[in-house]
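Subject: design request, 155 residues
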């Protein structure tokens, strides 16, 4: 893509200024990325959380699927794909997929970020569905705590 970080920031600010609920997904763990790339993504996420507190920020772990250049890179770096259609049916990063194309340090940091991300997502969904005020208030407080943990997270 020919989109720069500054172009993305400008677009997010414009959308937020006009009242749109902005979503900002970050694809992490892409073959060829390193810990400095992850640090830059986390720094950008923290910056967005400060500038636009209502922004929905999500991290997505890269999963190598056939037919893409990144898949071939992951295979070249040691990824062993599922051997059958049935195995592909249950394949995901949730299923304990080993990300052999990333360093151990990167994988550990990615798992830590994913922990916060998963809890934050579940709390957002539950918060929207829950009707009782006291439960909504507790969920809001918990989400604030999760966002604070993400802001304090360092690699």
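Subject: RE: design request

Done. Sequence follows.
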């Amino acid at each position: 893509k020919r989109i720069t970080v500054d172009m993305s920031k400008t677009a997010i600010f414009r959308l937020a200024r006009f009242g749109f609920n902005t979503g900002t997904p970050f694809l992490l763990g892409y073959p060829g990325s390193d810990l400095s790339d992850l640090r830059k993504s986390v720094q950008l996420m923290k910056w967005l959380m400060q500038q636009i507190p209502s922004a929905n920020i999500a991290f997505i772990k890269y999963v190598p699927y056939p037919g893409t250049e990144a898949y071939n890179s992951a295979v070249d770096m040691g990824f062993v794909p599922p051997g059958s259609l049935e195995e592909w049916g249950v394949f995901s990063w949730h299923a304990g997929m080993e990300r052999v194309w990333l360093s151990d340090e990167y994988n550990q940091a990615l798992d830590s970020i994913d922990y916060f991300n998963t809890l934050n997502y579940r709390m957002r969904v539950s918060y929207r569905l829950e009707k009782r005020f006291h439960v909504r208030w507790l969920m809001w407080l918990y989400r604030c705590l999760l966002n604070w943990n993400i802001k304090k997270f360092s690699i």
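The mean pLDDT is 79.
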